[in-house]
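Re: the 232-residue chain
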Amino acid sequence: MPLEARGDQFNPPEELVDEKDLVEFWLAFRRNNGWNLPDPEAEQQKAEELAREAQKSSARFFAIKDGGKIVATGKLEVRTEENGAKHGFLEKLTVANSEKYRGKGLSKKITDARTVAARNEGCTHLDAEVYAGNPIGLVTKLNDGYCINDVEFYDEDNKTKGWFDLTKGIDDEPKYDRKKGPLGDLKEINLTDLVAIKSLIAQGYVGIDARNPVEVNGQDPKQWILIMEQIN
């Protein structure tokens, strides 16, 4: 069912429920990430398998279509924490790799749709993950009020690659704003030093901002500095 449109040339986000739409969701998600299998038949089978798994889950899937084709994707999973609080976990956000769709606010529309759905399910927080090698994606989340509260590694024997776990209150203003303060103790650390970042988190710090003294929009994580604040 379409959610409220924001008045541009694209259709508003839809929540997908039937298997055909869910197959198209996974085909679009994988295509947007460059994950297509070389054999189109195998790619179709993979998408059908993922769609069947999706129908068995409690997750919710959202998409924006253009001419019947899915051009943006996003998934919402509601998780209940040990204290009973509900968190909306946002993932599988992609936009088709085309100038027609990139930079048009489609990611925000998908995120807004999932936020409304999470709030309606009683969620108090939103959670997300960002690959540690994606500094621009990370800055986008930090600017939206998220903070880094954990680091996960792809391989415990090689802790140079992983991802950041982020969270924010669903209706809160950003809690850790360097411009507004007051601030706790701050530390700056290279974005690629995942072990040190995880160690600081264990000491009560969270990641609140990132800067690149070399190139504002640079994609190289080695150029980025993470700012961490001690909150407890």
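The beta strands are 14-16, 60-66, 69-80, 86-95, 123-131, 147-155, 158-169, 186-190, 205-211, 225-230.
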